[in-house]
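Section 5.1 Outputs to date
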Amino acid sequence: MEERNPALKNTINLIIAQIHNGVIDEKTKQKREFDIFDYYTLTSMSLKEFMQAAGTFGIEPIGIKGFFLQNDLRNISHDDTDRIMKMGYIVNGIEATLEQKKLMINYLRNNNMPVTVPLFRLAFKRYINNVLTIESDKIKTL
């Protein structure tokens, strides 16, 4: 598999390295912890798929199970759209409007990310803090 899919091997190694070392935020240039949003910007694999893929390359993902457990990536098969649309969420004194919620949900779906409350919160926080730029005219409504 390694010879046939070096990009997957590189992605696995990158995820493991960033879980251990953190990431440099592109806009703020500050180092921060790797989070679930970062994970899903790099891959759509579940924990089981990630661990299996790592094993096929002989990569031992030491010390990362805690990240998956902390972010509950084991069973992300539900969709929190209804819950998100009903909840109030405030970042820096700005409450998410229905339009912003729809934009975030469609952004997650367009980027093959699960629509969960934790991912919504991270996406909205980055959006409000101008770390995540979303061109609404390029987001398909799903």
